[in-house]
Amino acid sequence: MKGKRLLVLTCAFLVLGAGIAYASSPWGDFQGFTKVKVLINNEEAITGEVPAFVISGRAVLPMRSLTTSMQGLLKWDDATKTASIYKPNVHMFVARDVNKDYQIKQPFGKVKQGDKIDFVVFPQVDNLDTPIYAFKIEIVRPDGNVLRSSDPAVLNEPMESFWYPWPFSGVTFDAYGDYKVHFLMKLSPEDDWTVVSEKVIKSE
Question: Which domain, by its residues, includes 58?
Answer without folding.
Answer: 2-86
